[in-house]
Amino acid sequence: MILKPSARNCAAGSLSSLTPTGRDVLSKHWPESLLQELLSEWSAWGSENQKPPDGDWRCWLFLGGRGAGKTRAGAEWVSELTRFRRAGRIALIGQTMHDVREVMIEGHSGLRSLPYERPSYEVSRRRLVWSNGAQAWCFSAEDPDALRGPQFDAAWCDELCFWAYPERTLQTLEHGLRLGVQPRMMVTTTPKPIPALKRLIAAPDTVVTRASTFDNERNLSPAFIAALREGLTGTLRHRREVLGEFVEDMDGVMWTRSDVEAARGRIDGPFDRIVVAVDPPASAGRHADACGIVAAAARGSGRAREALVLADASVQGVAPQVWALRVAELARSVGAHAIVAEGNNGGEMVRAVLKAAAPEFHVRLVRASDGKRARAEPIAAFYAQGRVKHAAVFPALEDEMCAFGAEDFSRSPDRLDALVWALTDLLAGGAADPQVRVL
User: Fold this and answer.
1) pTM score, two decimals?
2) 336 partner at 20 to 30 Å CA-CA among 19, 110, 278, 281?
3) What is the per-residue pLDDT for 361?
4) Fold of 47-241
5) Of 276, 259, 265, 250, nearest to 391 (Cα)?
């Protein structure tokens, strides 16, 4: 018995919402052949957010919680492309090569677990081959350069937000998506506020669908669902990893995006003190930390004293003489009264190189006795009190502010350090601050 399209669509609408118990009851009343046909019909089981969206899109971005059915959706999309000859050269990209094979290909919801033809997997070539000639090659986001050279008409990228090099990998892949009339890619991921994901969301040819873990509840353990409902509810982790929401604020951070947005504005002068603060790197070169360079000004007294961040001129990978000239240029342009520089890396060398570049400015060398977070906490409090404003949008500095303190924040907060030194001088008494020792 073959189910007609109209009957199939009707069945799909009801089957997709059935519980396992309901399916068992159904199996007692429907012919076995009909049930097998439906079991292999994705339109009968998949939810609407797991199916390709309509329209002229280049990237389908599927944001979902853990267990929301992202892998099944990706595998079904690739399978449909190959079965109906809509794509013949496909890239499969995962966090590691192990993830590509064990999740995207051999996993419970992977390509070789679908109720269709099982493509053969050639281990030596890291390639899947279907009987009609369609092929899919496997790549790890740990090696973006492996995508140089090959070309594709489709790509499935899984768990983008957990890749080692998301931006580099995506950019290299996009150059290789050049076959066919309309090359497309699908990205399935649990969302995190990384630049690569934000760029995709903002692209005009991206279509975003979302699913929470609870949307796929019928296919998950009741005990697992019960634990989710009791455990993380209301936290940022719950919103991202369960509800699949794109939330830019990360757990543990000292500044949120709303804090930074609230700091937009002007403070009218005249200012009684203007400083340029410097967080010098310990070395130079392409892989060295950035030299944080931030200018700020302040006016008023006591609890009414307020500060305006004027500029972020931070620079990365240059020699001390170069960043010192940049500091001097900024100090002259804003009419600074002093240059405040951290002396932990370089000590008197820092003072000497700055005096050579800007001899007309007083250079105040400081060293902290406490850690970065302890120094930043009173500055975050000034923001919360509305006593700090930003004269412009400073994307790199503000990204660093909103990531500092998060569990996976591992780089040196060079721009933020310079900001903290500037505002400590202007609002926290500078040399009077017990956390700061003047050299």
Assistant:
1) 0.55
2) 281
3) 97
4) Rossmann fold (3.40.50)
5) 265
